[in-house]
Amino acid sequence: MAFHNRIDPRRARFIRTEARKLTIQFWRRNKKFYPGPNGHLNLLPFEPKLIAEGVLGLSFDEPWELGFSNYAGALQVELAGQLDRPNRQISIARKFSAEIRRFTAAHEIGHFILHRERNLFRESPLTDPAIWRPATRPELEANIFAAELLMPSKILRDLFVRRFPAPIDVCKIDDNDAVMLTNGHLMPSELRAKPLQEIAEIVANASSFVSGDQRTLTDIFGVSRAAMGIQFRDLGLIRRSA
Ligand SMILES: [Zn+2]
User: Fold this and answer.
1) If pLDDT is split at 50, 70 and 90, which confidence band does 86 have?
2) What's the gap in Å between 108 CA and the centre of ligand 1?
3) In angstroms, what is the span from residue 179 Cα to ligand 1's centroid?
4) At a CB cut-off of 8 Å and minimum separation 6, what does 237 contact?
């Protein structure tokens, strides 16, 4: 269920480049360089609010809640975020966790950059696995944008290979890897048999194999395991060889 299976690769590259351009603009405006290999740990997690206000000149409103919306006359859904283009305003409901608020805000910025033909976007919380099966193309695109804004490929790759020996081919997970990743709860064969997304989420939430930093990558980037698992798979950091 990774993104790359469901979108034209050129369009995906374009979306990631747009997100990267925004991040670079942000660091330039703050008279800092785009964080390099040794400079990013204290600059994470990225806060989309700073980019919305500082680079795009949007207002960023954080009320406790945003109410409910009817989608297609069906269920009432509680809203977590909204983009109001005519008023140049993003609103994010404060009642949700920092992870959800961060991803939802980055997703709204994605709509702002990518979907200029539409004036209003309203979202339920971008957290549960349902977000990875978005109903429409714009929702999928805004998720890819958000993933790249919050977990820039270059920085994530760099931190990944410093923490884990190499991109992980799940077919080659051995005894050592299984112990490191699951504290010995699973045998290598049990781990290898799991769905790729589930293994990716275990890695996202695992302590480093090699470095002294005990924080997980999800802690460092301030995103959910599901979000990071998808990003690992899209970047080829976790894969299953044929
Ligand atoms: Zn959306």
Assistant:
1) very high
2) 6
3) 39
4) 156, 157, 160, 167, 168
Question: Would you state the pLDDT for residue 212?
Answer: 63
Distance in Å, CA 158 to ligand 1 centroid: 29
State residue 215's pLDDT score.
Answer: 81
Which has more confidence, 187 or 3?
Answer: 187
Q: Would strands 238-239 and 168-169 be described as parallel, antiparallel, or unpaired?
A: parallel
- Among candidates 115, 107, 69, which has minimal Cα distance to 90? 107
Supply the pLDDT for residue 138.
92
27-42 per-residue burial string, b: 16 or more CB within 10 A, e: under 16? eeeeeeebbeeeebee
Look up residue 155 and give its two tokens. 């920085």
Q: What is the pTM of this model?
A: 0.90
Distance 172 CA to ligand 1 centre (A): 37
Surface-to-core class of residue 146, CB atoms within 10 Å of its CB (0-12 exposed, 13-18 middle, 19+ buried) = buried
Q: How far is the CA of 111 from the centre of ligand 1 (A)?
A: 7
Cβ atoms of residues 34 and 27 within 8 Å = yes
Q: How far is the CA of 131 from the centre of ligand 1 (A)?
A: 9
Q: Which residues surround ligand 1, an ion (CB under 5 A)?
A: 121, 123, 139, 142
